[in-house]
Design a protein that fits this description.
The chain is of the alpha/beta class. Helices cover 27% and strands 27% of the residues. The radius of gyration is 20 Å and the shape is globular.
């Protein structure tokens, strides 16, 4: 079947991965699934949904497993949040991306996949346009990550030391947990088997499917550990306050429409 590449902001789906147990966040996740932990005064998942909605996306599929009833009970069909929400329940672990195989008949246009434990200021409209105009089968959100090595680093030639750096700052590009995919790549995902995003990237590259990297330069935090959760709460008002005030003043406009007007 030929893929439909209709304009973003209409019927394109957003698939949110919200089934993990959040073991590194215990005891916070003993009775609450990680994506439902509150940052500011809202669950992480609600913040993500509202951000996509502001860029024109209205159709969501949430993959749930651990404490699934809490997620579904809170959002229901999405009507109270001005969006459409469907659910897929994994009866066993299918890895970070394996559940997409269950959605093969539903995902007929390019779509987003995002981890349900991220806070970011990525421009979802620009990333989707980057994916489409670049003719990528799959696009990863990527970002620069810097870290300090805890040891002095030695350069040498044989037995001779040529340089010594004390705890140098290193950097690399990392996967940011946000993806745009064309429906055709779902064919590479096996049925009823655990399959990770790294597996999909590898098989796409081996099959000469173009895989793009969209650099996320703005705010980004992966709420994977307790210190990350407290950091996100401490930074939330400062990082997102301007957006909230902007949207209040433009309550009748979506960011999707605003960005379209800028292009015209």
């Amino acid at each position: 079947m030929k893929e439909d590449t209709s304009d973003v902001g209409m019927d394109n789906y957003v698939v949110l991965m919200a089934g993990g147990e959040g073991n590194r966040l215990r005891p916070l996740t003993n009775e609450i699934p990680k994506p439902m932990l509150k940052v500011g005064n809202k669950p992480i998942l609600e913040i993500i949904i509202n951000q996509f909605k502001d860029f024109g996306f209205k159709n969501f599929i949430i993959s749930i497993n651990y404490l699934a009833d809490i997620v579904e009970g809170y959002f229901s069909d999405g009507s109270n949040f001005g969006v459409n929400i469907e659910y897929i329940r994994e009866t066993k672990s299918l890895g970070t991306i394996g559940c997409l195989r269950l959605l093969k008949d539903k995902l007929r246009m390019p779509f987003y996949v995002m981890n349900g434990d991220l806070l970011t200021k990525v421009n979802f409209y620009e990333m989707f346009e980057f994916h489409k105009t670049g003719s990528f089968g799959m696009t990863l959100g990527i970002r620069n990550y810097q870290y300090t090595l805890p040891y002095g680093v030695i350069d040498h030639e044989g037995d001779i030391i040529t340089d010594f750096s004390e705890k140098p700052l290193q950097s690399c590009m990392i996967n940011a947990g946000v993806y745009c995919l064309n429906p055709g790549v779902i064919d590479y995902i096996p049925e009823d088997l655990s399959f990770d995003i790294t597996d999909l990237v590898d098989i796409c590259i081996r099959n000469e499917v173009n895989v793009g990297g969209f650099v996320i330069k703005g705010y980004w935090v992966d709420i994977g550990q307790i210190e990350d959760y407290y950091r996100a709460n401490s930074e939330y008002d400062f990082v997102f306050k301007n957006d909230i005030e902007f949207l209040k003043k433009n309550s009748k406009k979506s960011l999707f429409k605003i960005y379209n007007n800028k292009k015209s």
